[in-house]
Write a structure and sequence with these properties.
Helix content is 31%, strand content 18%. The protein has 290 residues and is α/β, with parallel strands linked by helices. It has one domain: Ureohydrolase domain (Arginase, Chain A), CATH 3.40.800.10. The mean pLDDT is 96. It catalyses: agmatine + H2O = urea + putrescine.
Amino acid sequence: MRFDEAYSGNVFIGSHPSYEESKVVIYGMPMDWTVSYRPGSRFGPGNIRKVSIGLEEYSPYLDREMSEVKYYDAGDIPLPFGNAQKSLDMIEEYVDKLLDAGKFPLGMGGEHLVSWPVIKAMYKKYPNLAVIHMDAHTDLRTEYEGEPLSHSTPIRKAADLIGAENIYSFGIRSGMKEEFEWAKENGMQIAKFEVLEPLKKVLPTLSGRPVYVTIDIDVLDPAHAPGTGTVDAGGITSKELLASIHEIANSDVQVVGCDLVEVAPVYDHSEQTSNTASKLIREMLLGWCK
């Protein structure tokens, strides 16, 4: 279950050597074929792995060490360059296999469209699935300039599949007026501008439910994460995002999978964005994979 032919040689710090013995599988989805502004997120997974060597393996937030969770870094899925549909099919097939094997999937993107096939796979296993979505953008378009496979469409596709009332979006500060109107008309909850406080109100209503969490790094203000394809001013701080991850960890929701997407290292030569992403993944691992 490791993609050796396309693997760069880096692994996320602390990765267990055995797939069979690991509960969590980290995998990369290096796709940016449909972006509308700046490409480069296909290099996100590799760079997040590379900088993870600088992480402390202990979380003072959660009082846990990474050695307490057995996780396996499977490398990047070798997606065919430019072929969006085949790439999405390959991602869905891979996550199907992870779920069949009883693994917790933790994905790294890649553009946000890669979350769509993962949610499809999760919904097949968990028919009462809810999705928590943290992002600057609504991602509720049905198409972008005539193309239905676009990084601006994954949450709309997910809403059409599992029901808009089962999607909870936080930190949203950008989108077409029609997207916000569609969400309101169809019972989807969108918390504009903030994440932590509205999240606290929603989590008790999701108690005991299987939840998939997808985080677009651009939910952060560009001051905290400049290395992304579609920057948008006015975002939250890294401190608030960390606190939100911990709020989920301390709740009664059953996180069954997650991803972190849209890290584009080429736009951040300081590697601040990748370093932030690697710390977020550490907290997701220790907080949600118990």
